[in-house]
Amino acid sequence: MPFILITSLFFMWGFARAILDVLNKHFQNELDITITQSALIQVTTYLGYFLMAIPAGFFINRQGYRRGVVLGLILFGAGSLAFIPCSLAGTFYAYLIALFVIGCGLVFLETSANPYVTELGPKETSTARLNFSQSFNGVGSMFATLVVGSFLFQNTDNSGVAGGNAVIPYAIMGVIVLIIAIVFSRASLPEIHHEDDRETHEGGHNLSRLFSNGWFVFGLIALLAYEIAEISINSYFINFVTGQDWMTAATGSTILTVALGLFMLARFVGAAIMSNMPAEKYLLICAVGSVVCIAVLLLNVSMEVSVGALLCNYMFEAIMFPTIFSLTLRGLGGLTKSASSILMMTPVGGCGFLLMGVVADNTGNLVLPFVIPFVGFVLVLAYAYKCVVTNYR
Question: Which of these, 214, 18, 220, lies nearest to 102 by C-alpha position?
Fold first, then answer.
């Protein structure tokens, strides 16, 4: 039951993060802003991750996983409902406040749920277990782009407020999330204890020990590189295909849904494969695949080849976050909660989309920005190779 309850949360934040990818283009259309300006949606949300990740770790260290989840849900729900008054302010920048609050809530959820799943069972299958739970993140992402994308791009705006119909899905999401918060406030979730918990109670001491651990630092860099690549591609996807005049925003949102569907299926498949194959070996295979896909995309041969390369990349990158996260937490014992909080600062890599937007707006070249995720996947490849050649366990 604890595993089922926690896994349900992966759907929620997958949904919340994927909405940003369609909200980005929607605000460009409704508020007449540039790609660079709309990138502030990702920057503001993921800035919440960066600023609140370590405080979230301190809170969870002292109060436990369940209370961390409840606080995260409350912030998530409050930020979503804040879209209602923000819409009346009549400006794009008002929405950024609500998105920052949502980002703060999501980091509490992810800092609690990711390590908790790795602890709920044998350590040998922790990576496969986290990949399975993360698969429902993909379900939430796919649902968001399909339902919300269709709603935003195929309905005329009759709301009479800045930002148009975006208020409606956020208001509904806010109510649902707060109901879930009530459920978790009454649920019984066992706390995970380690032999060295007493030694790792002080957060500052934890940080110094973690950053003296070479494997942890390398894993942190690899996870940040992945987040830069993955979030930037998601956020840029619709802008790329519409800017090339290949399809409309509505069609682009549908194709993104297909991509996220492949992403979800690849996580389920990856969870099964890693039950029988060392996680680091499968990570290496997938990293090579992503590097090749983005290299092909940079050649910009044709629409079919470029879109095909993007879709294939979604399958290869699917297992990267949970696999790198789990590998980085191996053997950390009482440092796990603090390590998780630091790892959850990495979604700030979503700000990489701002750099992609700057490159696209200033060069007029919509393909060149993909150099940024290409470099990210190369770093993931280096991490995976190092894990394999050192037989890391």
Answer: 18
Query: How many Cα atoms occupy the beta-carbon half-sphere of 299 within 13 Å?
Result: 12
Residue at 18: amino acid letter: A
Find out whether 83 and 27 touch, Cβ atoms under 8 Å.
no
Closest of 124, 116, 122 to residue 278, by C-alpha: 124
Q: CA 344 to CA 126: how far, in whole Å?
A: 18
Q: Are 342 and 61 within 8 A, CB to CB?
A: no
What torsion, rounded to 10 degrees, do the Cα atoms 94, 96, 99, 105 define? -100
pLDDT at 247: 87
- Distance of alpha carbon 325 from alpha carbon 79, whole angstroms: 27
Those residues with Cβ within 8 angstroms of residue 69's Cβ, 6 or more apart along the chain or in another chain: 6, 9, 108, 109, 112, 113, 184, 189
C-alpha 9/C-alpha 7 separation (Å) is 5
Please state, in angstroms and rounded to a whole number, the distance separating the CA atoms of residues 306 and 241.
10
* pLDDT tens readout for residues 347-390: 877 777 778 888 888 888 889 999 999 999 999 999 999 988 88
What does the block give as tokens for 73? 């849900």
**CA geometry: angle at 3 spanning 257 and 195, to 5°?**
130
What distances in angstroms separate CA 21 from CA 31, 42, 95, one per listed residue? 16, 9, 15
Given a contact cutoff of 8 angstroms between Cβ atoms, the answer to whether 17 and 49 are in contact is no
Smallest Cα–Cα separation from 296: which of 280, 314, 309?
309
The end-to-end CA distance of the chain, in Å, is: 29
Dist CA 35 CA 240 (whole Å): 10
Pairwise CA distance, residues 102 & 110, whole Å: 12
* DSSP class per residue in 36-58: HHHTHHHHHHHHHHHHHHHHHHH
**pLDDT tens, position by position, 320-329:** 988 998 888 8
Q: Residue with structure tokens 């060149």?
A: 368
| DSSP 8-state code for residue 367 | S
Query: In angstroms, what is the C-alpha Rg of the chain?
Result: 20
